[in-house]
Amino acid sequence: MTDFDTPAPESHPRDAEYLAKLQDYYAVWKSVPSYAALCEVFGIASKSWVKAILDRLCKADFIERTPDGAWIPTRQFFARPFAESSVQAGMPVSVTATQGEYFVIDEMLIDTPSLTTLIQVRGDSMIDAGIRDGDIAVVEKRNLANVGDIVVAIVDNDFTLKTLDKERGKFILRPANAAYPIIRPHGSLEIFGVLVGLIRKYRK
After folding, report:
1. What pTM value is reported for the model?
2. pLDDT band, very low/low/confident/very high, at 11 (cuts 50, 70, 90)
3. Which of 12, 164, 176, 180 could cysteine-pair with 129, CB 3.0–4.6 Å?
4. Catalytically annotated residues
5. Are 82 and 101 in contact (CB under 8 A)?
C-alpha cells in the first residue's frame, strides 16, 4: 500500500484552515490546483498529506471528483457562515461566539435561476429606497408586477429601475429621490422584471 492509498482519518483540527486556503485560491484562479501546488498553498511538504486533506474535504462534502478524476467544488464549498446573532445598526449589543448556519448566497437571493439576471444600477434616482449607484440589482424576469414592487421597466424603449405605482387608473413609475420626476409613460410601459435582491460591495 502506498501513501496515496492510505485511508484518510475522519477529520483533522486544521481542516477548516486548509478549506479556507483552498477557497481563497479558488476565488482567484477558479480551479483546484495540482498536489504539488497545494503543498505550497497548504504550507506542507508531502503530496500524500495533500491527498489525505482532499479526501477528508471530499468526505465532508466540500469537494468531489469528476469522472476523469479532477477535483471540483461542491455546492457546500461556496457556503458562507451566517452568524447566529444579528448585528445592530443602533446601539451595540453583546456578541455571542456561537456559530450559526451556513448559507450559499445564491440560495438566499435567487429562487428561480433560469429567470434571474443581475443588472448594475446607474444613477441615484432610488437612493431613498437604499439603492445606490453601482449596486447590483438581482432581478427576476417576469412581465407582471404588483403596485409597490420595485421593477425594471421598459418605458418608451428605455430601461429604468423604479417603484411601480398607479395614478388615475394608469401605471406610473415612482423614483425614490425627490430630485427626479415621476415617470408617466407617453407610450408603452413593459415590465422586464421585479427586484428580488441587492448586492453591494464595500471597497477599502
Report:
1. 0.69
2. confident
3. 176
4. 125, 162
5. yes
Residue 51 in grid coordinates: 491527498
Query: Could you report the per-residue pLDDT of 12-33, keeping only the tens digit for each?
Result: 889 999 999 999 999 999 999 9
* Alpha carbons 185 and 160: distance in angstroms, whole number: 12
The residue among 29, 64, 79 that closes a domain is 79
The mean predicted confidence, pLDDT, of the chain is: 87
Whether residue 191 contacts residue 140, with contact meaning beta carbons closer than 8 Å, is answered with no
- The pLDDT tens digits of the residues spanning 144-181 come to 999 999 999 998 788 999 999 999 999 999 999 999 99
**What is the SS3 assignment for the chain?**
CCHHHCCCCCCCCCHHHHHHHHHHHHHHHCCCCCHHHHHHHHCCCCHHHHHHHHHHHHHCCCEEECCCCCEEECHHHHEEECCCCCCCCCCCCCCCCCCCCEEEHHHHHCCCHHHEEEEECCCCCCHHHCCCCCCEEEEEECCCCCCCCEEEEEECCEEEEEEEEEECCEEEEECCCCCCCCECCCCCEEEEEEEEEEECCCCC
Q: Are residues 124 and 184 in the same domain?
A: yes
Residue carrying C-alpha cell 456559530: 99
Contacts of 130 (CB under 8 A, 6+ apart): 198
> What's the structural domain count of the chain?
2
